[in-house]
């Protein structure tokens, strides 16, 4: 369980205001507190004797803005970095450690409605840009958005919950940002009494608004959002706290679920698209090379298609398998035994026919029979153990990776001392590389080999017109 908070401190420019913040923070349960309106002219990165780490950014030339974070002792070891991206946006990155997955927390302080529309739009464009550039699996955005978001009004507003106070124009813009980034508004997901929902109080206590918000990109990890009334430093804002349950297991499951079938390339279409390349007279050969590589990548992308997996078992066999399950569920053991025998025979026959058809198709097309037989299998065998150089055997994957890395590093490392090369100065002209030699070299390269840093495979080069 992790608790992430947001708090508009109004100012953290003095030692007294920082001390007051720390006194109140030690009274509550938190892991990270996103801080807005620091109004500091100098940044601060401090580690306290009790282990907390405080990062405070600077305000603009008008003395407005400034964001920061306070990280509790138990999470300090997970800190990767804190960056103030603008005077209104900060980013805290927490690295993976044990069962705790990697996490990015954005702290934002939006302009009020009194600012020009251009400045408000620039803020949201910056926030969206930084959000999309970050590829962490779990991302949380907290801060003072000076925006009011009420309950969901239409079925299309799935990113907004069914609870809230009221809407305003700034809230419409924040809702648009949430919908564009496909995130979830946390405040409106949970039913709370009005006294535990508002985060800002007008002078005199006449008006109350909910303008501080918590946004997350994974709804299932958010368990609660609410204010903490007892946290008070003299600010007209109240601390808003969200509870999360971040799981490495959930991260792995979601990534596996999003896997897409391996794409295949239509080489005839690729050859046609690659033929549109036009040579230009460029003084810098590196620029010409980069342009060619980009053209080949674009051509390969346009020629991609999803690889269709042909059914290995016939419909009749699948029906037998279904009947076997139904017979077992009904308790008819004699019929189950008979259907199990027929299923084994049918599966064996289907695989035999399918394998023969695949190999015949490969032979007619002139493809490698060995590679085709390998592709027909729907699984790969893994190395279960490896012998170390000292003769001992290990089944640890990490140790096996180290053994393989050391072996190939030593294999391809040069142990021969080469004398320095001296160019001839008698007017000897090095012959140019002939195009026929280049084509011969390309045709000699084996297929299905790993590409280099440019990600261009031998098949791409061999299918050039």
TrEMBL record:
Compositionally biased spans, kind Basic and acidic residues: 454-465
Coiled-coil ranges per UniProt: none
Gene from which this protein is expressed: Acey_s0647.g1097
SUPFAM superfamilies documented for this protein: DNase I-like (SSF56219)
UniProt-listed InterPro entries: Endo/exonu/phosph_ase_sf, Endo/exonuclease/phosphatase
A molecular function (GO) term: catalytic activity
Ranges of residues in domain Endonuclease/exonuclease/phosphatase: 5-237
Disordered as annotated region, ranges: 445-465
Pfam families hit by this protein: Exo_endo_phos (PF03372)
Protein name: Endonuclease/exonuclease/phosphatase domain-containing protein
Provenance organism: Ancylostoma ceylanicum
